[in-house]
């Protein structure tokens, strides 16, 4: 069997939670990180280019490399020495699944270089264990919008129908919010009322996404498990939400753990919603980049 000496893995950004689906739903977006691994006898080399490249670690602590090592640990083999070239398109710590791209990229690259001993399901389980929740890594691997739930013997993954007329618009501010910090503000227990609220609204979200029925979508994006606690970490949240809705969005939510904000709208209102979100943030002194990003339906690609 010939030994593979180089491989490139392209992994999409993801937006998790979609309001009431905290820690269980996410969608892949057409924004990518690319990771090239080349066997290299002279020890670890990590080179980074692209968006905010200077912020990524270039030593053994790099998350992408840690995931690569994890794969080899799991299959009980010594990892090869590699040169890694990272091309960043997904901004870091903004709620767009940058850590998931690194985890998925490192595991998938490691698996291919090792001769593909693990199935896609095994790689997915390792990725979920590393990230701690499934809602970014699963769509990053599979593409589209995915729901992950613990089954009786392992994870159950459902692909969620996303009506083609529903367009995501994201506004990415120029400040970071780590997932760790955004999880620390959450209560460990919630009331029965809040649990029922989210159960009902999550059901409504799934039906709203499938049907594009506007009144369902407008109501469905509400959440009581994480957003009320996280909004204080995102200055201007209320103003950006009001501007997005006034410009024609069905509603707005925090993308992942934030601070990126995600509005759902239709094709016609997309430019107006993006401009309104950017302007609302500008008025409170925050620079942002706002744009529509279609769903990626392919997930991780290898070449
Ligand atoms: N391409 C990468 N290579 C190496 N490490 C990365 C890469 N991308 C992200 N990371 C690591 O992940 C951290 C960001 O993870 P964090 O979970 O806080 O945010 P996120 O994944 O962007 O957002 P969210 O999980 O809310 O979608 C970075 O600070 C960095 O340490
Ligand atoms: N579900 C996760 C996504 C961010 O990684 C959270 O909201 O904390």
Automatic annotation (TrEMBL):
Function per UniProt: Catalyzes the ATP-dependent phosphorylation of L-homoserine to L-homoserine phosphate.
Q: Does the keyword Nucleotide-binding apply?
A: yes
One example of the protein's molecular function in GO is:
ATP binding
Q: What is this protein called?
A: Homoserine kinase
Enzyme class name: transferase
Species this protein is from: Nostoc azollae (strain 0708)
Binding residues for ATP: 91-101
Q: Which family does it belong to?
A: Belongs to the GHMP kinase family. Homoserine kinase subfamily.
Q: Does the keyword ATP-binding apply?
A: yes
> GO CC terms for this protein?
cytoplasm
Identify the stretch annotated as signal peptide in this record.
none
Instruction: Write out the entry's keywords from A to Z.
Output: Amino-acid biosynthesis, ATP-binding, Cytoplasm, Kinase, Nucleotide-binding, Threonine biosynthesis, Transferase
List residues of the GHMP kinase C-terminal domain.
Answer: 207-282
Query: Which InterPro entries does UniProt cross-reference here?
Result: GHMP_kinase_C_dom, GHMP_kinase_C_sf, GHMP_kinase_N_dom, GHMP_knse_ATP-bd_CS, Homoserine_kinase, Ribosomal_Su5_D2-typ_SF, Ribsml_uS5_D2-typ_fold_subgr
PANTHER family, alphabetically?
HOMOSERINE KINASE, HOMOSERINE/4-DIPHOSPHOCYTIDYL-2-C-METHYL-D-ERYTHRITOL KINASE
- Please state where this protein is localized: Cytoplasm
Copy the pathway line from the protein's UniProt record: Amino-acid biosynthesis; L-threonine biosynthesis; L-threonine from L-aspartate: step 4/5
């Amino acid at each position: 069997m010939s030994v593979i000496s180089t491989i490139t893995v392209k992994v999409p950004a993801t937006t998790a939670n979609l309001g009431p689906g905290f820690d269980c739903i996410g969608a892949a977006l057409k924004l990518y990180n690319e990771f090239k691994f080349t066997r290299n006898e002279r020890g670890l080399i990590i080179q980074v280019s692209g968006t905010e490249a200077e912020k990524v670690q270039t030593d053994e602590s790099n998350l992408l490399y840690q995931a690569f090592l994890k794969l080899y640990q799991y299959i009980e083999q010594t990892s090869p020495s590699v040169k890694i070239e990272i091309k960043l398109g997904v901004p870091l710590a903004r709620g767009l699944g940058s850590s998931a791209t690194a985890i998925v990229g490192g595991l998938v690259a490691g698996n291919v270089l090792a001769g593909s001993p693990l199935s896609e399901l095994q790689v997915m389980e390792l990725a979920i264990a590393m990230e701690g929740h499934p809602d970014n890594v699963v769509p990053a691997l599979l593409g589209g919008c995915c729901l992950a739930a613990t089954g009786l013997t392992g994870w159950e993954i459902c692909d969620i129908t996303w009506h083609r007329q529903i367009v995501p618009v994201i506004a990415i501010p120029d400040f970071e919010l780590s997932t760790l910090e955004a999880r620390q503000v959450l209560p460990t227990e919630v009331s029965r009322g809040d649990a029922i609220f989210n159960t009902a609204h999550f059901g409504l979200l799934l039906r709203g996404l499938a049907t594009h029925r506007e009144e369902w979508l407008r109501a469905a994006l509400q959440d009581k498990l994480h957003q009320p606690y996280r909004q204080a970490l995102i200055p201007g949240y209320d103003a950006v939400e009001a501007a997005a809705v006034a410009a024609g969005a069905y509603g707005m939510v925090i993308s992942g753990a934030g601070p990126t904000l995600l509005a759902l709208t239709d094709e016609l209102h997309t430019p107006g919603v993006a401009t309104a979100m950017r302007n609302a943030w500008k008025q409170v002194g925050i620079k942002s980049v706002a744009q529509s990003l279609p769903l990626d339906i392919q997930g991780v690609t290898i070449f």
